[in-house]
Amino acid sequence: MPEGNGVVLRSPLQYFREHFVGLPMKGAWQPPEIDARGGGCKAIPDFLSWMLSAPVVSSKARQALEPLIAPHAEFLPLPQVRGSDLWAANVITLVDCLDEGRSRILYSRDEPCRIVNVATFAFKDDCVPDIPIFKLASYPVDVFVTRSFVEQVRTAGLTGAAFADPAVNPLPLILKGQSLNVIRGAWPAPVDADEDP
Question: Is the peptide bond before 67 cis (omega within 30 degrees of 0)?
């Protein structure tokens, strides 16, 4: 979701094997070490790049999105970056919508049923829930949003968000330096963006 202005947050990858996996953490939350890089003197956007499993947002974005996604995600405080308060969105609603037969999936060699990566996602017919934000029960890594979330981002004028099509492998686009964004009005919008999420 984030496609910010060059500000990237980094933390040890090991941390994400046990955190942001679809379980509530608010009561025992201890933020990890975070290293902010890039962006120069540019303002901090409302969405920042960290890990796919945990969108990072500004206080403005939290205020705009919390009434919509509160039953499905909790906001956890992170250390300030350049004087800005930041929040990690821990998505806790998991749905069983992944159509493994039509998705491009890499499974673990040691544990054949464990998904290591999904290049393209396909969903079971008539299965995507009518909720603003969720993760998949069988692979709680990527965060998925629906139209109501996108519209709230637009209405609130939030910056730094991009919305990718889960059915498209992002790697070729990234290697070509192209935007993953498919929604007009989200930043930055490509010329040929489609209106449907």
Answer: no
**If residue 133 lies in a helix (H) or strand (E), which one and from where to where?**
strand 133-136
Q: What is the pLDDT of residues 108-132, one digit of tens each?
A: 999 989 999 999 999 998 888 889 9
Burial 66-95 (b: 16+ CB within 10 A, else e): eebbeebbbbbebeebeebebbbbbbbbbb
Residue whose token pair is 């040890």: 12
Distance separating alpha carbons of residues 50 and 93, to the nearest angstrom: 20
With helix as H, strand as E and coil as C, how does 52-115 read?
Answer: CCEEEEEHHHHHHHHHHHCCCEEEEEEEEECCEEEEEEEECCEECCECCCCCEEEECCCCCCCE
Interacting residues of 81 by C-beta distance below 8 A, sequence separation 6+: 7, 9, 34, 36, 44, 48
Say which residue, 197 or 19, is predicted with more confidence: 19
